[in-house]
Amino acid sequence: MAYPDLCAKLRKALARYARVAFGKDLDAIIQARGHELALIGIDSKNKRYLDICGMNPSDFKIIESKGFFDNDAGFRVSAHKLLGLSKPTDVFLLNADYFKVDEMRAVPLIVHELAHFFDQIAEEPTIEANDDENAEAILKSLRPEVLVREHTKRWALHLAHAARVLQVKNLTPHSTIGKFLDAAIPSYDRDGPVRARKGW
C-alpha cells in the first residue's frame, strides 16, 4: 500500500535539502546513476515497514523478509546489491515519527541521511570556513560503536558543510550550527553535544 501524499512530500523535502544544503540535484544524480529511489517508512509502534511510494511488491517483500530494524532514519545506496532487489535501487528510510517533516526535528535528520547518500556515492564535499573543524567535532561526539557504522570523515564533512550553509542562509530555526548538528545526530549516538564553531 502506497502513501502518495507522503511520498510527494518526502521526495520534495529530499530534493529541496539536497539543493539548498549541498548544492546538488538529487533526482538528476539518481537518474544519472540509473537507479530508482525507494522510500520506506519505519513504523516502530507496529514493528513493520511501510512502502511509501509503491515499489515493486516482490522487492518490498524481500525488504520485509530481512526482519524489522527499528531506527530513526537511514540511507542505503545500491541497496539492490545488498538485498537482491530486481532493479538498481537506493533506499531512504524514515521513521513515522518524522513524517510531519518539521524543521526542528525531521529536517536535520534528513540532512544527516543526505550526507550519507553523498558519502556513499563517493561525492567529495565542499569544504569552507570551519567545516573541517566541525566535521572533527561531529566525529568526536559519536559513541565508539557508532563511528564504525558508516560515519566517515567524508560523511561528517558533508554534514558540517550542510549545517553551516543552512545556518548562514537562515534556513533553519536552530540558532547555531552546533544546535542543528545536535538535532541531526540522535542523542543515543552521541557521548555529548557537538562542539561546533561558527561558520564564518
Furnish the topology, listing elements before pairings.
Layout: H1 4-22, H2 26-32, E1 36-43, E2 48-51, H3 57-65, E3 73-76, H4 79-83, E4 89-95, H5 106-120, H6 131-141, H7 144-147, H8 153-168, H9 177-184
Parallel strand pairs: 1-4
Antiparallel strand pairs: 1-2, 3-4
Helix pairs in contact: 1-5, 5-8, 5-9, 6-8, 8-9
> Strand-and-helix sequence, N→C?
HHEEHEHEHHHHH
Structural class: alpha+beta
Structural shape: globular
Mean pLDDT, to the nearest integer, reads: 94
**Number of E-type strands:** 4
Helix content: 40-55%
Strand order of the largest sheet: 2-1-4-3
Strand content of the residues, in percent? 5-15%
Radius of gyration: 16 Å
Q: Low-confidence segments, ≥5 residues, pLDDT <50?
A: none
Main beta-sheet strand count, sense and barrel state: 4 strands, mixed
Cα distance, first to last residue?
47 Å
What is the number of helical segments per DSSP (H or I, 4+ residues)? Answer: 9
Explain what this protein looks like in three dimensions.
The chain has 200 residues and is of the alpha+beta class. The chain contains nine helices and four strands. It has helices spanning 4-22, 26-32, 57-65, 79-83, 106-120, 131-141, 144-147, 153-168, 177-184; strands at residues 36-43, 48-51, 73-76, 89-95. Strands 2-1-4-3 form a four-stranded mixed sheet, sandwiched between helices. Strand 1 and strand 2 (48-51) form a beta hairpin. 38% of the residues are buried.
